[in-house]
Amino acid sequence: xxxxxxxxxxxxxxxxxxxxxxxxxxxxxxxxxxxxxxxxxxxxxxxxxxxxxxxxxxxxxxxxxxxxxxxxxxxxxxx
Length: 79
Prior knowledge:
By secondary structure, the protein is mainly alpha-helical. The chain has 4 helices and no strands. The mean pLDDT is 86.
C-alpha cells in the first residue's frame, strides 16, 4: 500500500483544526499560543496553514500542552 499525499494532508488539517479550536476557545493569538507551546509564531502559522512537517514527538508534546491526547488507530488497508 502506498500512502498518498492526501492522507498526510488530511492529518495536517486535523492537527491544524485542533490547534485552531484550542486557540479560539482560549482567545489566543498566534503569538500567545506560540509562547504557551514553546514554539515560534512562524512555526504556529505554518502548522495552521498545513505547511509544517513535524515529528511524532513534537506533535504529542504540543497536543499534551493543549490538553489533548492523540489517538492512533490502524485498520486494514483497502486493496
